[in-house]
TrEMBL record:
This is Putative 4-hydroxy-4-methyl-2-oxoglutarate aldolase. Homotrimer. It catalyses: oxaloacetate + H(+) = pyruvate + CO2; 4-hydroxy-4-methyl-2-oxoglutarate = 2 pyruvate. The keyword Zinc-finger does not apply. Catalyzes the aldol cleavage of 4-hydroxy-4-methyl-2-oxoglutarate (HMG) into 2 molecules of pyruvate. Also contains a secondary oxaloacetate (OAA) decarboxylase activity due to the common pyruvate enolate transition state formed following C-C bond cleavage in the retro-aldol and decarboxylation reactions. Its EC number is 4.1.1.112, 4.1.3.17. InterPro entries: RraA/RraA-like, RraA/RraA-like_sf. Mg(2+) binds at D107. It comes from Longimycelium tulufanense. Its cofactor is Mg(2+); a divalent metal cation.
Amino acid sequence: MVDFEMVRKHVREVDTPAVCDADKKTRVMSEAIRCRSKNPSLCGPAFTVQCRGDLFPVIRALEEAAPGDVVVVDGGGRELALGGEIFARAALARKLAGIIVDGGYRDVSYVNTCDLPVFSRHVTPMAAVANSLGDLQVPVSCGGVVVSPGDVIIADQEGIVVLDPASAIPVLEAAREVKATEAAVINKVNEGATLVDCLNVAEHYDRLAQGSPSTLRFTP
């Protein structure tokens, strides 16, 4: 089981681009899933919901999810609101880490000022019905990627990424190294170095010209 205190510690020192640079297999949700609140930063285990045109399963999830969980809703991308102001307030009261909906959300006049990270594909005033149980804590599709219960969800201004709990810590440690390298390169650039001075361009060019595998990398 992943140590989420350690995950959160690492996340405070990295961002989603560094995570993606550290692991090119990182699942990235579609940019169509957009932040609707004033705070885009979240980190927590996924509590998944699958529903179609029905918000009752989301109510169930908001009550069953543990503090620190991210409620991830597979609403099939439909343009129906599966949450709004009251749901966001309820999530804040439960100390959840955030709500991500592949579907609609509403009451953005409040949500825009809300500290709870809320992401959705659509903004719409039309709420879904509340007539079915749906499914909780099953693998779902959200923003074009598969999310399983307990997956590590990280979001910031750049987007939303999903990590396997078993590999999250090593990936985040690698992301910290990426940030350290970037900081060294930024210092060189600030001191007058060119971009070519900071990359293995000549070596990379020669290897590619020879048909050999190569990786373009910073050389701080």
